[in-house]
Design brief:
Blueprint: E1 2-9, E2 16-24, E3 50-51, E4 58-59, H1 70-73, H2 76-79, H3 89-103, H4 107-124, H5 127-142, H6 151-163, H7 167-174, H8 182-196
Antiparallel strand pairs: 1-2, 3-4
Helix pairs in contact: 3-4, 4-5, 5-6, 6-7, 6-8, 7-8
The structure holds zinc ion.
Zinc ion binds next to loops.
Length: 214
């Protein structure tokens, strides 16, 4: 992976700051069921979110316009991460990005941001808070229209439900669910099988019988 320092102007406060951005990344291995990439992509996560050193605006790029003013960044919700307690700076940035995405009504991106935060907690072995972030992702899904024409989101929901121990829902909602893409159908059916076994751990896509990675 190669990164490069780039001067960026914050769209909320106008402050210039330098941020490392990825200019080249290598092809990775087999992803997890929620499409979490394997190494070397995993270690690139810190470059997926920028934070303005002046006002605290977090987004994929802080040049992305915000549909709110600086006062939101000073709100309790933003400062206290909507109730998620952590000392981990990367988690804080992903959760703040999720809150920003919701304010900007970019719900798919908000779901992804919470999922990224859950991955950082997974790596810390912090299961309870990883679960909290997955539940936040599920709540964004349920309160928006992210599933409209987006089968990927609906499939991701199966993994979020399973990883948060909502096994019955996985079985009832996905047991008979058809996906046109054969790979998505295999992932969905595998999730149902894991849910029936009460398995809430991370699995690789290559664990699924019938899916081969070269
Ligand atoms: Zn700023």
């Amino acid at each position: 992976m190669e990164t490069k320092l780039t001067e960026t102007v914050c769209s909320v406060c106008g402050t210039k700051s330098e941020h490392a951005v990825i200019i080249k990344s290598e092809a990775g291995g087999v992803p997890d069921l929620d499409l979490r990439p394997s190494e070397p992509h995993r270690s690139s996560m810190e470059y997926w979110v920028m934070e303005c050193p002046e006002c605290g605006y977090c987004n994929g790029s802080i040049e992305t316009p915000a549909e709110f003013d600086r006062s939101y960044l000073e709100s309790r919700e933003y400062k206290e991460l909507g109730g998620i307690e952590t000392e981990n700076k990367l988690v804080s940035r992903f959760v703040r990005k999720a809150l920003v995405n919701i304010k900007n009504r970019d719900y798919i991106e908000a779901v992804q941001s919470y999922v990224y935060a859950s991955w950082v907690f997974d790596d810390e072995g912090n299961d309870e808070q990883a679960k909290e972030c997955r539940n936040e992702a599920l709540s964004v899904m349920e309160n928006s229209s992210v599933f409209d024409g987006n089968e990927n989101m609906y499939l991701l929901r199966a993994d979020l439900l399973r990883r948060t121990g909502q096994f019955e829902k996985v079985v009832s909602d996905y047991g008979e669910r058809f996906f046109e893409s054969p790979i998505m159908l295999l992932i969905s059916q595998y999730s149902v099988k894991l849910a029936k076994n009460g398995d809430s751990s991370a699995h690789k896509i290559s664990d699924i019988p019938g899916i081969k990675f070269e």
